[in-house]
Amino acid sequence: MTGSLILGGGGMIGQKLAAHLQATDPDTPLTLHDIAFPPKGMPGVTGDVSQPGIMQALAKKRFDTIYHLASVVSGEAEADFTKGWQTNLHPMLALLEGLRLEHTASGGTYRPKVIFTSSIAVFGGPFPEVIPDDYATSPQSSYGAQKVACEILLQDYARKGFIDGLSLRLPTICVRPGKPNLAASSFFSGIIREPLNGQEAALPVPDTVRHWFASPRAAVGFLAHAARIDTSQLNGHRALNLPGVTCTVAEQIEALRQVAGAKVADLIVPKPDPDVAALIARWPEAFTATRAKTLGFRAEDSFADIIQTYIADEMSSE
Amino acid sequence: MTGSLILGGGGMIGQKLAAHLQATDPDTPLTLHDIAFPPKGMPGVTGDVSQPGIMQALAKKRFDTIYHLASVVSGEAEADFTKGWQTNLHPMLALLEGLRLEHTASGGTYRPKVIFTSSIAVFGGPFPEVIPDDYATSPQSSYGAQKVACEILLQDYARKGFIDGLSLRLPTICVRPGKPNLAASSFFSGIIREPLNGQEAALPVPDTVRHWFASPRAAVGFLAHAARIDTSQLNGHRALNLPGVTCTVAEQIEALRQVAGAKVADLIVPKPDPDVAALIARWPEAFTATRAKTLGFRAEDSFADIIQTYIADEMSSE
After folding, report:
1. Domain B186-211+245-315 class in CATH
2. How far apart are CA B193 and CA B201, in angstroms?
3. Which residues pair with A238 in a beta bridge?
4. What DSSP character marks residue A312?
5. Out of B137, B142, B236, whose CB is closest to A136?
6. What are the boundaries of each domain within chain B?
7. Per-residue confidence band for A210, with pLDDT thresholds at 50, 70 and 90
8. From the candidates A100, A134, A157, A235, which should be mutated to test the interface with B, based on the most B CB atoms within 10 A?
9. Is the pLDDT of residue A52 over 80?
10. What's the rounded Cα separation, in Å, for the pair B185 and B206?
11. Partners of residue A137 in chain B, C-beta under 8 Å
12. Under a CB-based contact definition with an 8 Å cutoff, are residues B122 and B57 in contact?
């Protein structure tokens, strides 16, 4: 029993997941790994997953559960093709191979649970209005392509019994606390977070854009739930579209107006960015997420709930 | 203009494609590459695509068109996990990286067409009766997983403009000439070929099994057609489900009876093999193949046609 590992444990979701696991299951040792950690956050092991030997060394520690959240974000993977593939695919190959060798060395008794954070960017439009669970993955971004490739690898290593696990196709996580990041989806959080903090926020796309959201708190819930479920229920299909809230940017803004008032909502300023708009144009709008709901995964019911979650989790202690 | 390269040029389809290209386009230089070549067949360069440096060296030759047929077959990829991934994924990574470097070195003018032979094994059941073009890939074999991973890589390198190309999800090719191979699907050809040659053939699955077929001649037609089409018509979705014939094993046997008589069909002997049956049970039965048909890809109309093609192409000169 060597406990749990969070790859990408220094990131926003990684830190929240770590806090949740420590609060709910304090007896299980927890190791965080990332290229850097926030100054006031929970500390961990510093390392670059794309460097040779790092994943093999981690595999040797035989963690019971590995949450794999380490990733270059979508905008950066698109801008730096080589870095994207080197960070978002090759470490997964190395990790799975390392775990397979440990499985074999253990005489088949070691079979860790690997929970991989995939993304709805695995899909590429044009789409049906609501995407069913058996809809084709055909990514139109390097980030999405890297996520599919990892899902496929995880599924085959799991099918062979070397590991157990599943891939979670997260909705766009919103409202992210902190600063904007290089993800193309960053503005979806920015247009809520900045106005709530009294600052102007740029809106790079038309307000008719519709998308699929869940809060950071819901994301932590997905990961914790994934660690508990019996994967034999997945019937060999180990990638899940997760539940979320579908709404347009106009509906996001209206929810902000209702929760925080017109003065706050008026801080959103249209500032069209054709590059972001082009990338977002082929992103999905809504999912049935039937399988995941049946398996007990839960998200918010409305975008107003998502805003309230942000206020409760991020603004109340300030 | 350095012509065309066939990776896997020593294989059954590779040899037929080479003969077709030489007959229809004799002025384009043609290079065949494979780990081995048939004694009386068309010769080529001998090499193992999974060895370091081989793909990089081939990329440096700047072929205009690369037909990538080199693969460990399904049964072997399932039996030898490491060999399967080393042969069916890693050479594709090396090839695409090599071609990207040539693209960059050429100042962006070199952009070869890469035609990759994928497979309907990218799908994993349970299925709808007829699989639509936007149906999810969720492979239940290592072979299928390796094919999806290559499709995803090809699509992303093509989306970025480093290469042009597409992936062809071939139906099960039937009737294969020659001897049985290690593909789990080998018996679908065996139960036609062996009886036509006066020999008994083992049937490892129930005759209610339904599957999706095209002849070797149709496969060569798919590849040659893929080299000609304008890929902008693919709208960024570069993997195609190809047309074929859907029929049950019972219908295969009935077609054989009609074409060659009861004495021939009676040479088929049921010999259940649970391993083969388990693998086949989650293979697809039929496809709409709407996109491919619209793009001009053509297969046979009936299984009797497929048998007649085998007799015409393989038995008339003997």
Report:
1. alpha beta
2. 8
3. none
4. I
5. B137
6. 4-170+215-241, 186-211+245-315
7. very high
8. A134
9. yes
10. 14
11. 136-137, 152
12. no
Token couple for A15: 């830190």
Residues of B in contact with A136 (CB under 8 A): 133-137
CB spacing of A136 vs B135 below 8 angstroms: yes
Class of residue A280 by CB neighbours under 10 A (exposed 0-12, middle 13-18, buried 19+): buried
pLDDT tens across B110-162, in order? 999 999 999 999 999 889 999 999 999 999 999 999 999 999 999 999 999 99
- Which chain B positions have a beta carbon within 8 Å of A148's beta carbon? 148, 152
Which chain B residues have a beta carbon less than 8 Å from that of A94? none
B contacts of A151 (beta carbons < 8 Å): none
Residues of B that are catalytic:
143
CB-nearest to A134 from B135, B156, B236 is B135
Q: Tell if the CB–CB gap between A148 and B145 is shorter than 8 Å.
A: no
Cβ of B139 and A148 within 8 Å?
no
**Segment B85-92 mean pLDDT:** 98
Q: The complex's ipTM?
A: 0.95
Q: Residue B296 — pLDDT band, cuts 50, 70, 90?
A: very high
Whether residues B149 and A153 touch (CB distance < 8 A) is answered with yes
Intrachain domains A4-171+215-241 and A186-211+245-315 with the same fold:
no
- Strand ranges inside B2-46, DSSP E: 4-7, 30-34, 45-46
Of A67, A143, A157, A310, which residue is the catalytic one?
Answer: A143
Largest CA distance in chain A: 64
Tell me what the pLDDT averaged over chain B comes to: 96
| Alpha-carbon gap, residue A70 to A54, rounded angstroms | 13
Q: Which two structure tokens, joined as six digits, stand for A244?
A: 């979320």
Name every residue in B having a CB less than 8 A away from some CB of A.
81, 100, 124, 133-140, 142, 145, 148-149, 152-153, 155-156, 159-160, 236-237, 239, 282
* Helix/strand/coil for B203: strand
Report the C-alpha gap between A109 and A113 in whole angstroms: 13
Q: Tell me the pLDDT band of A57, cut-offs 50, 70 and 90.
A: very high
Residue labelled with tokens 């007649």? B308
User: Which of A137, A140, A152 is opposite residue B236, by nearest beta carbon?
Assistant: A140
B150-175 per-position pLDDT tens digit: 999 999 999 999 999 999 999 999 99
* Mean pLDDT, residues A236-241 taken together: 98
B160 and A152 within 8 Å at the Cβ level: the answer is no
Topology (CATH) of A4-171+215-241: Rossmann fold (3.40.50)
pTM: 0.96
**CATH number for the segment(s) B4-170+215-241:** 3.40.50.720
Spatial separation of the C-alpha atoms in residues B271 and A108, rounded to whole Å = 32
**pLDDT above 70 (res A251):** yes
What pLDDT, on the 0 to 100 scale, is given for residue B1?
55
